[in-house]
Design goal:
The chain has about 180 residues and is mainly beta. The protein contains 2 helices and 13 strands; from the N terminus they run ββββαβββββββββα. The chain has helices spanning about 30-40, 165-170; strands spanning about 1-5, 10-15, 20, 25, 45-50, 60-65, 70-80, 80-85, 100-105, 110-115, 115-125, 130-135, 145.
Length: about 180
Amino acid sequence: MQLKEVGIEGAYLLVPQVARDDRGTFARTFSSKEFEQLGLVTTLDQCAISHNPQKGTLRGLHYQLKPFQEIKIVRCSRGSIFDVLVDLREESPTYKNWFGVELSENNLQMLYIPGGCAHGFISLIDNSEVFYQISGSYNPEFARGVPWNDPAFGISWPIQPTLMSQKDRECLPYRERERA
């Protein structure tokens, strides 16, 4: 597995080695031994899948407050998404910076998102599916969100959202007093 820095402290683009033959492709997306050698978290407590039938579906930007911050490994198992993380860790040298990348079933890349960062994505084509591996558990009392278009971050999305949850539409702008 190749680890590429993305300009956000502790976040990486993970590029698996892909074996191709007449049957198709094979790529290992997680190995605790390899992750440990790379200095990444090896304990993942939950996995989740989101199916997004419509292009322009936006989910996020979500995060959890201390002590329930989550580390996420995100990959697009079908279709294509623009995946975004925002560093909300005040002590981080990349505080309030963002990174975005296209993840797709074709490029097989994954985004490793450290705790204390908000995460979200927009589907670039119909029927995109996203697979998450997550450390820790979801704690609704500590769950927060910031608007996808919050001027505090200036994220450059490739397309405008056409579908999002009411909860995501009602997120209040990021306030520095509520730290990740």
